[in-house]
Input
Amino acid sequence: MIPSSGGRFEVKRDGVLVFSKKALGRHARAGEVVRLLQGGDQRA
Output
């Protein structure tokens, strides 16, 4: 984890952004980050 400011929550896998609260304007849904990390829908 890398600390940040401004309420950001971003998840990267192998240097690729797979989830961004800032980009989507919402919190992750239940199980969403896990699914993305397992190779599901790769979007940010």
Summary: The chain has a mean pLDDT of 85. The radius of gyration is 10 Å. The chain has one domain: 1-44. Helices lie at 21-24, 32-37.
